[in-house]
């Protein structure tokens, strides 16, 4: 057996583990002070007091700085071409956000080569990693033809196992809605399924209604894809309740929620993934995170990085917005951006630092995770390890 390289990070002033075994003493984040972590191969091998740390091949001294689990960004749309900054500018001078802008990106994406799309995703994934994101979900949805959806997913698959078929993003220009749903649930799904783990539908006025979403998710499930949903982003509607009824692992946006929606989320256990960068970038009201948390709903935070409604790749910005604008505590926000995102992808190997989990860590240039919200806009990431390997200098 080949020797696996081990690394010990000592002198961690404050370590957020998210380890449920440590929450009694360490609160929601399972905090350990004066901590050390040992990484062996791609996994965490040991977590404990710095004074008790075993030796390893490589030693890194954190010098009292904080370490948190790598961010798990469970919602992004990175496979696209073109620029929509003019649409953003128009929005900032009074135009509303509508789903229709998606079609602009579809035209540009179809015209791009596989190499151009791959290079663009690589750039955005690197941008995310440099900001502490170590797991990312990537959706298709700017191809909207059999060929362009399948190749969008093949491009995404080079970067993550968490790929999502979003052929049902909008109905492309020149196609009748019923005809398009038949295409999505038929030949497009067949071409996309080998490259995808998940299937998603934009369930919203101007996109797909609840009945169409139900049919598309059922077809996806028959092809072995698990469902997720964009719902209640721009208006009230039945999307969130559909997600809960179907027992989906997560439903994303959740901006416009009735009391029934909140009750359905609480009783189903479906995770509400909040995407505050979208409200920031569209000047919409933020989702009411406090109402959800107080009702016992599980919450995740993700970037929704996409060229239209929100072009940020920064999970730290999402944490800062969640704290400042959505009344989440700094601990709730970090938990939602790490363990919450992992749960929204039905993963128990990421988002938590405990023996056996993936060695995905972020060293912050700060004494506490609180600085993620306390110092908004400041680049605090001093080091990133992904699957045990340094992805950015510590
Ligand atoms: O999650 N809501 C649907 N899709 C994206 C926006 C896509 C776009 O405007 O290009 C979102 O907000
Ligand atoms: Fe989205």
From TrEMBL:
Annotated keywords: Cytoplasm, Histidine metabolism, Hydrolase, Iron, Metal-binding, Zinc
Family: Belongs to the metallo-dependent hydrolases superfamily. HutI family.
Limits of the Amidohydrolase-related domain: 249-385
GO biological process per UniProt: L-histidine catabolic process to glutamate and formamide; L-histidine catabolic process to glutamate and formate
GO molecular function, one term: imidazolonepropionase activity
EC code: 3.5.2.7
The protein, known as: Imidazolonepropionase
Cited InterPro entries: Amidohydro-rel (IPR006680), HutI (IPR005920), Metal-dep_hydrolase_composite (IPR011059), Metal_Hydrolase (IPR032466)
Sites where the protein binds 4-imidazolone-5-propanoate: 84, 142, 169, 233, 309
Family matches, as PANTHER family: IMIDAZOLONEPROPIONASE, IMIDAZOLONEPROPIONASE-RELATED
Binding site for Zn(2+): 75, 77, 230, 304
Origin: domain of life: Bacteria
Keyword Hydrolase: yes
């Amino acid at each position: 057996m080949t020797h696996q390289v081990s690394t010990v990070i000592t002198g961690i002033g404050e370590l957020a583990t998210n380890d449920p075994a440590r929450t009694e003493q360490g609160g929601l984040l399972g905090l350990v002070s004066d901590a050390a972590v040992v990484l062996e191969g791609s996994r965490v091998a040991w977590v404990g007091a710095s004074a008790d740390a075993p030796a390893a091949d490589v030693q890194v001294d954190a010098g009292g700085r904080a370490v948190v689990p790598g961010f798990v960004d469970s919602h992004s749309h990175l496979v696209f071409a073109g620029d929509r900054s003019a649409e953003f500018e128009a929005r900032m001078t009074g135009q509303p956000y509508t789903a229709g802008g998606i079609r602009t990106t579809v035209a540009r994406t179809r015209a791009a080569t596989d190499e151009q799309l791959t290079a663009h995703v690589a750039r955005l994934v690197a941008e995310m990693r440099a900001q502490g994101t170590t797991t990312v979900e990537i959706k298709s949805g700017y191809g909207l033809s059999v060929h362009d959806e399948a190749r969008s997913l093949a491009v995404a698959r080079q970067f993550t196992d968490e790929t999502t078929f979003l052929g049902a993003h909008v109905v492309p220009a020149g196609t009748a809605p019923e005809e398009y749903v038949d295409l999505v649930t038929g030949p497009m799904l067949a071409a996309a399924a080998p490259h995808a783990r998940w299937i998603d539908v934009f369930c919203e006025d101007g996109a797909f209604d609840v009945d169409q979403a139900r049919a598309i998710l059922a077809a996806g499930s028959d092809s072995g894809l698990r469902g997720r949903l964009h719902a209640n982003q721009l208006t009230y509607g039945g999307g969130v309740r559909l997600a809960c009824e179907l027992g989906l692992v997560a439903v994303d946006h959740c901006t416009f929620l009735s009391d029934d929606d909140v009750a359905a989320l609480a009783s189903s256990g479906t995770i509400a993934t909040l995407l505050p960068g979208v409200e920031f970038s569209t000047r919409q009201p933020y989702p009411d995170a406090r109402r959800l948390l107080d009702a016992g709903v599980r919450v995740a935070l993700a970037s929704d990085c996409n060229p239209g409604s929100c072009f940020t790749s920064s999970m730290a910005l999402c944490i800062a917005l969640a704290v400042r604008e959505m009344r989440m505590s700094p601990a709730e926000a970090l938990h939602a951006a790490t363990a919450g995102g992992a749960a929204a992808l039905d993963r128990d190997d990421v988002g938590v630092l405990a023996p056996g989990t993936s060695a995905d860590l972020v060293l912050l240039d700060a004494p506490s995770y609180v600085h993620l919200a306390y110092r908004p806009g400041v680049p605090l990431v001093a080091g990133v390890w992904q699957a045990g390997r340094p992805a950015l200098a510590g």
